[in-house]
């Protein structure tokens, strides 16, 4: 039976930086590496809100990316 081992977690904050000539929003992302594997969604969201408050552009979304090694 195969098993997955969590290797790496990253946090990405996406900010809305303005609009283009068509009136569509422009987004810019900021990546934070080495997120603690034990971090809950609530803890990540709280940290993202605190980091977002330090930026001039409004926080649009918060993303977590996990990478795992799968072995037999």
Automatic annotation (TrEMBL):
The protein's matches in InterPro entries, at most eight in alphabetical order, are given as: DUF1659 (IPR012454)
User: Where do the DUF1659 domain residues begin and end?
Assistant: 2-71
Among the Pfam families in the record, one is: DUF1659
Q: This protein is called what?
A: DUF1659 domain-containing protein
């Amino acid at each position: 039976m195969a098993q997955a081992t969590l290797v790496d977690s990253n946090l990405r904050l996406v900010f809305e930086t303005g609009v283009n000539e068509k009136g569509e929003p422009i987004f810019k992302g900021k990546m934070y590496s080495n997120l603690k594997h034990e971090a809950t969604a609530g803890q990540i969201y709280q940290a993202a809100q605190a980091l977002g408050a330090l930026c001039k552009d409004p926080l649009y979304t918060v993303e977590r990316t996990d990478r795992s090694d799968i072995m037999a």
